[in-house]
Amino acid sequence: MKIVNGKYRMVVALITLVLFGLVAALPCFAQQNQGTKGSGPDRSFTMYFDYPEIILPGGSKKTDLNLTFNNKGKKDETIYFNYQIPAGWRATAEGYGAAVTALYLPVGELKSVTFSITPYENTGAGVYQFKLNARTQDGALKASQKLQVTLLAKEKQKEGEIILTTSYPVLQGSSDGKFEFALSVNNKTRKELPFNLIADPPKGWHVNFKPPFKDTYISSLMLKPEESENVTVLVTPNPFATAKEFTIPITVMAEDFKAEASLKVIITGTYKVDVGTNTGLLSLSTQRGKSSNISIYVQNTGSATLQDVSLLSVKPENWKVTFSPEKIASLEPGKLEQVEVTIEPGEDSLVGDYAVGVSVNTEKSSDNLELRVTVKASAAWGWIGVGLIILVIGGLFGLFRALGRR
After folding, report:
1. Residue range 82-107, pLDDT digits in tens
2. Class for the domain spanning 162-267
3. Of all helices (H) and strands (E), which one includes residue 74?
4. What's the distance, CA 127 to chain centroid?
C-alpha cells in the first residue's frame, strides 16, 4: 500500500509540473501570436493620386481622377477630407455617384473616391495646384496630397470649312494623253472668300484648272457662303513617264481654311516607233544586178519597251532587199538600233528612179520609210556609147570629105 501511495504521489507531482510549465508559457504564446497579427504601427493611413500631374487640352470639360486611401494600421478608421482648389475651377469628391466628405476604411483595405475637376469656360491656360487634406475622426492622424494640372490654350475655332470632292479620283491611260478630273469646291464658311487652287504634280507634269466646258485657265475661285462650284483639273503627263501610278496633290486654300485631295493617274505606257536615217537623206544610187547599202535607225520614242520589232520591205518585182539585223528582239524606251539595208535591183531593171518602202512593225506600233533608188547604166555601156559616137562622127567626117572631092 505504501508503494502504491508513493507511485500516486509521483504521478501527481509530474502532472503538477507539466501544468505549471504550460501556465508559464501562455504569456509567451500570446505575445508571439500578437506579433504575427500585425507588425506595423497601431494606426496609419495613406492617400494618393494615381497620376499627381496631368495635362489637359484647352476647352476640356469634366475630368475624373482616382483618389485612393490605404489603411496600414491595426484599427479601422473613418477618414474625413477636404480640398483647396485654385480660382477658375470646380471640384467634387464622389462615391457611387454622390458627393462625399468622408469614408470608412477597414484595416488593410484600399478604397477610392472619384475626384472630379472642371475648369470654367473662361479659365485661361496655365499650371494649377490642387491640395487635398485628410484626417482621422479623432484628428490624431493627418495626410495631404497635391495635384498639378496643366491646362493648355484652346485651339482657334474655325467658323466652317472647305469641302473638296471628286467623283473619279483615279484615271488610267498612256503618257501621250491628257486626263481631266472633275473637282467640286464647296464653301462651308460664313463669309465670301477667294479660294486659291494649288497643285503639286510630279516633275515634268503640268496641271491646269479651268471651268467646265471652257478653255480659260484659272487659279482661284470667288465663292459665297454655302456656294459650290465645279472645276476641271487638266493633267498633262510627262511624255516619258514610265508605266506606274502617280499622285497629284490638290490644295484649296482661303485665309486659314484649307482642304486637300489626292488625284491619281495610272500610266499604262505608250508604244511608238520611229524609223529614219541619220543624215536625213532617203535616196541612193545603184546599177541593175548590183547591190547598194543604206543605214537606217529604228528608235523607241514611247514610254514602254517594244518587243519583237520586225522589218519588212515593199520593192519592185525581182528586186532583193535584206536587213541586218533582220529582227530586233527588244527595244527600251528612248533607245535606237542601227539597221543596214541592202538593195539589189533586178537584172532587167531599166535605168531610172524607183521607190522602195521600209516598214517597221511591233505588236502595238509601226512606222514606214520610203527610199528613192536610182538605177544607172553600167560604166561599160557608157564607154560603148562613147565608142559608137566616135565611130558615127568619124563616118560622117569621111563622108563629107568624099563628097567634097567631087
Report:
1. 999 999 999 999 988 899 999 999 99
2. mainly beta
3. none
4. 39
3-state secondary structure of 334: coil
Helix (H, G, I), strand (E, B) or coil at 336: strand
User: pLDDT digit string (tens) for 285-297?
Assistant: 998 888 999 999 9
Dist. CA 364–CA 27, nearest whole Å: 110
Q: Are 67 and 112 in contact (CB under 8 A)?
A: yes
Cis geometry, peptide bond prior to residue 325 (ω within 30 degrees of 0): yes
Residue with cell 497635391: 146
- The answer to whether 170 touches 206, Cβ cutoff 8 Å, is no
Which helix (H) or strand (E) covers residue 202, if one does? none
* Whole-number pLDDT of residue 243: 84
Average pLDDT (74-84) is 94
Average pLDDT over residues 247-274: 92
Res 33 pLDDT > 80: no
Q: Which residues contact 94 (CB under 8 A, 6 or more apart)?
A: 100, 113, 114, 115, 116
Which cell goes with 246? Answer: 502617280
H or E segment at 308? strand 306-314
pLDDT category, 37, cuts 50, 70, 90? very low
Q: Is 325 helix (H, G, I), strand (E, B) or coil?
A: coil
pLDDT exceeds 50 at position 1: no
Where are the chain's structural domains?
A: 45-151, 162-267, 273-380
In sequence order, what are the beta bridge partners of 346?
Answer: none
State which H helix or E strand residue 291 sits in: none
Q: How many CB atoms lie within 10 A of CB 279?
A: 8
Query: What is the pLDDT confidence band of residue 29, given thresholds at 50, 70 and 90?
Result: very low
Give tens-digit pLDDT for 207-218.
Answer: 999 999 998 999
The CATH architecture to which 45-151 belongs is Sandwich (2.60)
Q: What residues contact residue 317 under an 8 Å CB cut-off, 6+ apart?
A: 346
CATH architecture for segment(s) 273-380:
Sandwich (2.60)
- The residue with cell 455617384 is 97
Between CA 22 and CA 223 the distance in angstroms is 103
